[in-house]
Amino acid sequence: MEIWINPACSKCRSALSLLDEEGVTYTVRRYLEDVPTADEIRAVLDRLGLEPWDITRTQEAAAKELDLKDRARWPRDASGRDAWIEALAAHPKLIQRPIITAADGTAVVARSEEAVRDAISR
């Protein structure tokens, strides 16, 4: 199990605390320092069963600078998927967190205790 975190994020710290309380073995990836490649983001999206816009923090400054809410420039369909992934790789702060990759090959965006427990149970 791996968890992508930003140490400044309270949701990330809560997820780590719960993993520790449950005695789970995991590795931490500080994704702002160890930035995932576009291919790694694609793999996590496949595991999540989500699209890149589903895990994008659209309120971040970089999202506003890129104008990610402009659906003409940033279509939310197959035609825009690669551009969204490249934006996440270039601006990792846009990636929703924490993301836990579970032992069964799936992943969850673990923003709640329930989501963390779901990942643990996999």
Structure explained in plain terms:
The protein is α+β, with helices and mostly antiparallel strands and 122 residues long. The protein has one domain: Glutaredoxin (3-Layer(aba) Sandwich), CATH 3.40.30. Helices cover 39% and strands 11% of the residues. It has helices at 10-21, 38-48, 61-66, 81-90, 113-121; strands at 2-5, 27-30, 99-101, 107-109. A hairpin with a 5-residue loop joins strand 3 and strand 4 (107-109). It starts with a strand and ends with a helix.
CATH topology, what is it called?
Glutaredoxin
The proportion of strand residues reads: 5-15%
CATH architecture: 3-Layer(aba) Sandwich
Look at the helices and sheets and give the structural class.
alpha+beta
Organism: Streptomyces lasiicapitis
Protein name: Arsenate reductase
InterPro entries: Arsenate_reductase, Arsenate_reductase-like, Thioredoxin-like_sf
Keywords: Oxidoreductase
Architecture blueprint of SSEs:
Elements: E1 2-5, H1 10-21, E2 27-30, H2 38-48, H3 61-66, H4 81-90, E3 99-101, E4 107-109, H5 113-121
Parallel strand pairs: 1-2
Antiparallel strand pairs: 1-3, 3-4
